[in-house]
Amino acid sequence: MCLEVCWVTPVYLDNSATTCVCREAADKAYEMMTLCYGNPSSLHTMGFQAEQEMTAARRAIGSLLGCPEECLFFTSGGTEANNLAVFGSAAAHARAGRHVVTTAVEHSSVTAACDALEKQGYTITRLRPDADGTLSAQAIVDACREDTVLVAVMAVNNETGARFPLEQAAEEIRRRSPHAHIHCDAVQAAGKIPIHVGRWGIDSLSASAHKLHGPKGCGVLYLRKGARVLPRQMGGKQERGLRGGTEAVPLIAAFGAAVQMLPSIPQQLALYDGLRQRLLDHFSADPRVVWHLPTGGVPYIIHLSVPGYRSETMLHFLAEKGIYVSSGSACAKGAKSPVLEAMGLPKEEIDSALRVSLCRDTKPADIDAFAEALQEGLENLVRR
């Protein structure tokens, strides 16, 4: 059993790590595994039906991202999509230059890929955000050179919720770096803020199903028509030769179903704004809580510190009460956050950081329960 008997209703506020799969997505995955289980590359009727389900999902996701369905390529998740964009574009443009612009606060799937390119002889410019976690479009542009072949900047930071305006920099990047491939990790943005990749003027963008109430193990890479990316794996002509291997049709179809069930962006943002303000109001007069709220940041990721109380200790205290938050990126596996270090935060704030992340199902009562439990922890746990 995944969970033992729990005597309290869980309050789940770690939605930037993953979300609960919605019923419609789960039902669609089950249908595809038990009824419509043909191989989409097969030429018979069952194969055609599976392929049609993939096409419907591709169309739904294309509508979400503002792009034609033929510009989308399914992957195993956001990490693979980011790797494919980083390594694939660098390989495709190797003759044009060996300079890459990224940030010091990217998801590890981009950071590690850029580290690997650096070992291959590429020069990597890693932009550090300001003290509040923000990064201007001009800073991105200023880092670009004539020999820049890749600009990889996320849309929303997964720890602080800072919004990085890559789309505002894209046009000037084209002027300064005509050979640059512009990639955006939108895993924490897709489905929650307005995205229109055509208007943004970027070359590629990644998204992940399990951040949007879909299943784990499925992601998507948008690739602008004409943008060059070399494949990273061989062995089949699936996904138009860019990503070989039989597609995970149940996960893909469930991804599409989850996207179709998302509330409108204005509805979501109104909900998140209200919930965030509710949490802030709980601690408006409590100096023990330090907020890290970037200017212009998204309202569904709320970052705070409680100096003197280690993150791990507070997380365990909250979990015992059935309240689930995180200390940062789930991919960090508890390691000290490079994002907060890059921001130059004091050590005591880094060591006591907590991330509260919301979803469409978060209720005001969830916020109240977290606030009450955190206050109890501040009163009863031993300061260090």
Structure description:
The protein is α/β, with parallel strands linked by helices. It folds into two domains: 11-20 and 263-380, Aspartate Aminotransferase, domain 1; 23-260, Aspartate Aminotransferase, domain 2, CATH 3.40.640.10. The protein has 13 helices and twelve strands. Helix 3 (78-92) packs parallel to helix 4 (108-119) and helix 9 packs parallel to helix 13 (364-380). The model has no long low-confidence stretch (mean pLDDT 94).
Task: Describe the secondary structure blueprint for this structure.
Layout lengths: L10 E2 L10 H12 L10 H21 L6 E4 L2 H15 L6 E5 L4 H12 L3 E5 L9 H6 L5 E5 L13 H11 L4 E5 L11 H4 L3 E5 L10 E5 L25 H12 L4 H18 L7 E3 L8 E5 L5 H10 L2 E2 L13 H5 L4 H4 L2 E5 L6 H17 L4
Parallel strand pairs: 1-11, 3-4, 3-5, 5-6, 6-7
Antiparallel strand pairs: 2-8, 7-8, 9-10, 10-12
Helix pairs in contact: 1-8, 2-8, 3-4, 9-13
